[in-house]
Design brief:
The protein is mostly helical and 128 residues long. It is 72% helix and 3% strand. It is built from 5 helices and 2 strands; from the N terminus they run H-H-E-E-H-H-H.
């Protein structure tokens, strides 16, 4: 089954503009063209778009995505390179996660302080 740009946009949540941008940047080369020159995507394209979205959401650069795709297209002899690229990115994501956890701890601490202050305030209010 093949999908139009609009259908892929609806299916993945990625705007048609962004899909075209990714194609121009060389990170989305899997779009075929029909007889009218319109882009057509298949299930593999959609899976790759979902991968792009996931990796971009964790801060992977377009350059690294392009490098990963180049490795992929070069075949199995690049498995170690692809794995290393993912391992390097995984370290970055884990660092981001640790920072988010620290931030969440700070937020929880502040909320606990406010809860104590609110409880003290409630105890000071006269009963009606």
């Amino acid at each position: 089954m093949s999908y139009s740009v609009k259908e892929v946009s609806q299916k993945t949540g990625v705007s048609t503009h962004t899909l075209r941008f990714y194609e121009k940047q060389g990170v989305l080369p899997f779009a075929e063209r029909n007889e009218n020159g319109n882009r057509r995507y298949n299930e593999s394209s959609i899976e790759w778009i979902e991968t792009i979205v996931a990796l971009r959401s964790t801060g992977m650069s377009l350059a690294d995505l392009k490098q990963y795709l180049d490795y992929f297209q070069d075949g199995d002899n690049t498995l170690l390179k692809r794995r290393q690229l993912m391992a390097d990115h995984k370290v970055k994501v884990e660092e981001q996660l640790m920072q988010i956890i620290k931030t969440l701890e700070k937020i929880n601490y502040k909320m606990a302080l406010y809860d104590v202050q609110l409880k003290e305030l409630e105890n000071k209010l006269p009963c009606l």
